[in-house]
Amino acid sequence: xxxxxLQEKYAPGNACFGCGPANPDGLHIRSFPEGDxxxxxxxxxxxxEAFPGVLNGGIIGALLxxxxxxxxxxxxxxxxxxxxxPCTVTAEYAxxxxxxxxxxxxxxxxxxxxxxxDDRATVEGTLSAGGKSCATCRGVxxxxxxxxxxxxxx
Length: 154
Known about the structure:
The protein is of the alpha+beta class. It has 2 helices and 8 strands. A 6-stranded antiparallel beta sheet has the order 1-2-6-7-8-5, covered by helices on one side. The longest helix is centred in the middle third of the chain and has 23 residues, at 57-79. The chain is globular and about 45 Å long. The model has no long low-confidence stretch (mean pLDDT 95).
């Protein structure tokens, strides 16, 4: 994977709990474009467990939400031939927890845009561990305009 993630390149001052490089207590998701999708690898820590050896469902949701949001932002940036991604926020989001997610090794995130317009993208994502899909999601992410509270977050 490239050395600098989307988050580090385009939003180094972002303090989001899931994907903000500037949040010392955050998850520090690092997302990378790869073909028509965006991928990430993340190593769980025991403090994120629901019970011994199993990742908390809320953490799974945060991982997929932030990773899919960056997938949308990157797609919209490319779609408009911009050199900076728009600031996008989650408008709609659903997650399916398919099986317990083990914490002994890394988890892998993949996401791709399945529909888009000028200011929004629908993204489907998967979290896998141990070679098995553990959770999936589908969300709609919208580029916000000046005046929205999240507009200047990156």
